[in-house]
């Protein structure tokens, strides 16, 4: 074994390098025993970065640094960039874009696993192709009339109605991204888009989906709530879909395999596909989705570009939404003004790209006003302004946000107890099924980590300990009335989806059952023994909370800033709250989290937005 492999084995044993990445390094050595250490190190790093969420590794950022170690003493020294690139180009395991080699090196010194370079190239090609052709011209006068009916309040507004602009854009384009923060009306907008298309005779076969079961359920719930505002007898309402799928179910996931029923050779049977919570979609799944779309089909992505990226590799939503402001081409603005849209000249893009006219950012929050502490806190977190974040949390006039610090475990439990008692008590006092199901969303306790001293697993144990000390739950019972649980894996035989929250109640016979809410006020119930993929869920990770909302949120920070701590993580956690947010943790950890912005390594943004890079980056 070479010295490098010995160092990498030590890094693996310390937990700084995964077994998969170590084995990939061994594989590269087996297929080319004469390969250089520089190539093995780069390949190992590329594999590890994919596991950490990056699509590739930027060699320029890693050159002349210490890798896989806490310091230069136990780390592996990376070579100079020029030497590193030179040795990689000499290796038969490394190819240029388009070549069939295990590793691909592009001209910007980004190194990819071949599969992920292919995914990135395919997605960029698909999106740019869909962005080229507009939908056929329509009767502009009729379109304007229907827009005014659906967005009638706009006539009294002097500011731009970005929901209305989004509807216009979705009607004219085959590919549209609608991004907005909490309460900006993304679901309301898409319902109006569907109604607009139905009224104008352009709505045929529609599917709605989201990355997780919980997000799909939330999407359908929001759609139904919005539909209740319209005249029940309207014919267009009957044309809207009555269910939302997970993306995996939409594509026809195979039980024993990674392939889907619907793909490039067997397209989806839809003319329009709407995907919610698009920020959660990883690169590989997004590729599978767009490849399964028929060439004539429209695709609408909804989401918040500022939220956490997917758990798996990629930051697709962030790469697509490269511009941070609403900006459009001159021709787009001229056409939009023909139907009465008020878009100011400042939104004119000086150098529009293929995707410029396909992205609309909803700017106005209807949930959080200017005086809202949650809205101001979320905005300050995104800007990375630690001073503003601290000032907002310390402001006694802002009753909806606060920071609670603790000295030791005892004070930590006291804070939890103060937060939990009012938030969780209704779980254990409500006996009516409907009211108990509504109580599920009263309080969400969100953790940055799953494991560790302040991770979700530990917090769930502490929560149950606090509840037992308060005599709220039995002293020694795994199952009891009021227990909140989460589904951890799709169970199609029971119709349960990953991320769904349920509550345990006694039925009319006094037997314990777990109840899960359904859209329309209905529910399903199961004996606990039938549930194989379930976990206690008073607390959960921020990642698991995506697609959910709670009246009150308690965010529990880790003891120190970690690799997964970031402003995106904190923003996502804070914006799960409708009414109140409490952050529990050390102020220095909070500030360190706000300062830390995650920038996943990828070439997708360049492929989509830089002129001349629509194909292979050679």
Indicate the structural class: alpha/beta
Query: Order of strands side by side in the largest beta sheet?
Result: 9-8-10-11-7-12
Task: For the record, give the distance between the C-alpha atoms at the N and C termini, rounded to a whole number.
Answer: 35 Å
Query: What does the average pLDDT come to?
Result: 84
Number of continuous helical runs = 23
Structure description:
There is one protein chain. The chain is an alpha/beta fold. 39% of the residues lie in helices and 15% in strands. It contains 23 helices and 22 strands. Helix 10 links the parallel strand 8 and strand 9 (244-246).
Question: Topology of this structure?
Answer:
Blueprint: H1 3-13, H2 19-31, H3 37-51, E1 56-58, H4 59-62, E2 66-67, E3 76-77, H5 81-90, E4 94-95, E5 103-105, E6 110-113, H6 114-132, H7 140-150, H8 162-172, E7 175-180, H9 186-199, E8 206-210, H10 213-227, E9 244-246, H11 247-251, E10 272-275, H12 283-292, E11 298-303, H13 316-320, H14 330-338, E12 359-362, H15 373-383, H16 386-394, E13 401-404, H17 409-429, H18 433-439, E14 443-447, H19 456-469, E15 484-487, E16 501-506, E17 512-517, E18 523-526, E19 534-536, E20 539-541, H20 542-545, E21 550-556, H21 567-574, E22 577-584, H22 587-595, H23 604-609
Parallel strand pairs: 4-5, 7-11, 7-12, 8-9, 8-10, 10-11, 13-22, 14-20, 14-21, 21-22
Antiparallel strand pairs: 1-6, 2-3, 5-6, 15-16, 15-19, 16-17, 17-18
Helix pairs in contact: 1-2, 2-3, 6-12, 7-9, 8-9, 15-16, 15-21, 17-19
